[in-house]
Design goal:
Strand 36 and strand 37 form a beta hairpin. The protein has twelve helices and 37 strands. The chain has 657 residues and is an alpha+beta fold. Helix 6 runs parallel beside helix 8 and helix 10 packs across helix 11.
Length: 657
């Protein structure tokens, strides 16, 4: 669409300043030079790039704009995400964003041309626009959708973010990373990420707030966070990263003092579970339909919503509204008076509801239901509201168990997922838990953004392993592995549920089905070993909607629309390590799919996570048992499943020049 057409190459090639205007064969190495041709020029406002977020092309587009875009307007290059469109109205000289992703707007007008003395990308202004946002090319202004509020001066978060260094970085894709860690976070003025090859040669990327930086937040599709960001400054500095295995790196690791509760023989359980990983979209019909079908259908469902995790009733009311939208009558839904704390925005003091946990009236009301839903928030509030102070079961909890055993469906999202297993992950980040271990103290919901792992007793409705949630967005693989190895039954599988996705548990058949829009990570530690912080032989599988797991046999059944990739791999190239937010295919499942399992050119791929010179090297490797599956979904979107990739984790020390 633009005069300058980017035909090939990647961000590392662009930052290295390797450009070509000749049609040359792919080098199939860890990075590719940026190939520039003349486009058709229908778009008159700068350079366009595509597959932008999924393939992490910010580096190549910014470098191309500095080198090839002669017009130095305020905005001069545009990166369009998959499943998203930039709609350009030439007569009005305006553009709008529509779809499910976003558009990155880059201003290189103040960047200095690259030379041996100047960094390849410097003083570049980067903005991220979401559906409903607009650009005015005459006034050179960006207009944010009116449903969003400015975050500047009203930042929600106050945590010290880690550098974005690989697959264990929370919010590891570029826009979420900058939204949560920088623009909506009052504790920092800049954040860093990296992009380098297997020899450690590459770039440190600094994203900084300036006087003109702003963030905007609102909900979309129910209660999913939706951000727009304007005018973040980007500078890239050449760097050499030296990684060395270091058995002493985790010498201060603290094992967990959490005492795993004794298993209670519950007998046969006829009910099912619908466990959502968080950020469940109101339009995610598949998850709502599954929950209602397991409750006997729209007309027979009698649903109780437990609001205890939240700080207000808004989440409960929103879920009730969604159920009504999907055909349930209002008189079939009850928000149960179960809480241990007061809610915002109500006249009643809901902290007094803690008395209801042993109320015969509340227990009797629960026994009339055939479905229970736990909303998100702080999972420790749920357990506090349902366990007695001496950790015995309250009457309300016993009533829930009673209907569950008889056939009721229990579901929950976010915090409502965390409470499902006996061992409840209540806080901590992946790198901190792997390197520092666990803590006995909990200081609130901010601890869910990082720090050592923190465990409490869950409600134990899921009897087949440990569950974690917000899995891919908050990159919780490391903390799930550390927790399951120390406190889990290693003969069982462990499960990490992505946002807007549910694992549906059939207790009679002992099977799990994946439902929703993202994926389910399955961790098998039955052959794993750990010594001085080093793990070996962890089996990782990454599943998608339609896939199922036999929990007893530990076997996977992949959706029939997919074809096996083993022996028919699409790719044949050397893959660079996953090093940060500009690494293509940044989520765990996609990184393993594109770079390892559907790539005959690699037998192993690596990722890193480190902080202040100490971290981990993740080595993912193919074996005879490794398999991959590919198909299209929702039109022409790639849809992968991966089974039995082996993971080794090594403590490392990191030096940087």
């Amino acid at each position: 669409m633009s005069d300058v057409m980017i035909t090939g190459g990647d961000s590392l090639g662009g930052l290295k300043g390797e450009f070509t205007e000749k049609d040359e064969p792919l080098q199939n190495k860890e990075y590719e030079q940026v190939y520039i041709e003349k486009g058709l020029g229908f778009f008159q406002y700068g350079i366009v790039d595509q597959h932008f977020d999924e393939r992490a092309r910010l580096g190549r587009l910014a470098a191309a704009a500095i080198n090839y875009e002669k017009r130095k307007d305020l905005y001069n290059s545009y990166g369009i995400d998959e499943d998203t469109a930039l709609i350009v109205h030439n007569r009005e000289k305006k553009a709008e964003i529509v779809g499910r992703g976003g558009v990155t707007v880059i201003d290189t007008s103040k960047a200095k041309p690259a030379s041996k003395k100047v960094h390849p990308v410097n003083n570049v202004s980067v903005s991220f626009l979401s559906p409903g946002d607009q650009i005015n090319y005459q006034t050179k202004e960006m207009t944010i959708h009116p449903d969003k509020d400015a975050t500047k001066g009203y930042e929600y978060y106050q945590f010290k973010p880690l550098d974005a260094t690989g697959l264990l970085t929370p919010y590891g894709r570029l826009k979420p990373y900058l939204a949560y860690s920088l623009t909506d976070n009052s504790s920092t003025q800049s954040v860093k990420s990296y992009l380098y090859d297997s020899k450690g040669k590459g770039y440190a990327l600094t994203f900084s707030k300036t006087a003109s930086t702003n963030g905007y937040w609102g909900y979309q599709d129910g209660q999913k966070d939706d951000y727009s960001i304007t005018n973040v400054k980007l500078d890239a500095v050449p760097v050499s990263v030296q990684v060395k295995k270091d058995k002493t790196a985790f010498k201060n690791y603290k094992p967990s003092n959490f005492k795993v509760p004794e298993k209670i023989n519950r007998g046969d359980i006829s009910g099912n579970l619908v466990i959502a990983g968080g950020a469940l979209g109101s339009s995610n019909e598949a998850v709502y339909k599954k929950f209602l079908d397991l409750a006997g259908g729209n007309s027979k469902a009698k649903i109780g919503i437990i609001p205890a995790a939240s700080g207000s009733l808004s989440s409960s009311n929103a879920f009730k509204k969604d159920l009504v939208k999907y055909g349930v009558k209002e008189d079939q839904i009850e928000i149960l008076p179960i809480s241990s704390h007061d809610f915002k925005g109500t006249a009643e003091d809901e902290s007094k509801w803690k008395e209801n946990r042993n109320s015969d009236k509340t227990a009797a009301a629960i026994k009339e239901l055939n479905a229970i839903w736990f909303v998100g928030g702080d999972q420790t509030y749920i357990t506090e509201a349902l366990f007695n102070p001496d950790q015995t079961e309250s009457k309300a909890l016993s009533a829930i168990w009673d209907i569950y055993k008889k056939g009721a469906v229990l579901g929950g999202t976010s915090a409502g997922a965390a409470i499902m297993s006996d061992v409840m992950l209540a806080g901590g980040g992946s790198l901190d838990t792997l390197s520092k271990g666990f803590t006995d103290t909990y200081n609130g919901i901010e601890q869910q953004e990082g720090g050592p792992g923190y465990l409490e007793r869950g409600l134990g409705f899921f009897q087949n392993g440990i569950i974690d949630q917000h899995f891919d967005n908050k990159s919780r693989l490391g903390r799930l592995i550390a927790t399951a190895y120390e406190k889990g039954d290693r003969t069982q599988l462990s499960f990490g549920i992505d946002e807007d996705t549910a694992m549906v548990v059939d207790n009679k058949e002992q099977k799990v089905e994946v439902v929703g829009r993202a994926g389910l990570t399955v961790v098998d530690l039955s052959k794993a070993e750990r010594k001085k912080g080093q793990y070996k032989n962890i089996s990782i599988s990454a599943l998608a909607a339609g896939d199922t797991v036999d929990m007893e046999q530990k076997k996977f059944t992949i959706s029939s629309h997919k074809n096996r990739t083993k022996g028919y791999e699409y790719g044949d190239f050397k893959a660079a390590p996953h090093t940060g937010v500009l690494t293509p295919h940044g989520t765990l499942k996609n990184y393993l799919s594109y770079n390892l399992v559907d790539n005959s050119g690699e037998k192993i791929v690596k990722s890193y996570a480190f902080d202040q010179g100490t971290g981990v090297e993740l080595i993912f490797r193919k074996t005879e048992e490794t398999d991959g599956f590919w198909g299209y979904k929702d039109g022409g979107k790639d849809d992968y499943s991966v089974t039995n990739v082996l993971l080794d984790i090594h403590p490392v020390s990191v030096r940087m020049k």
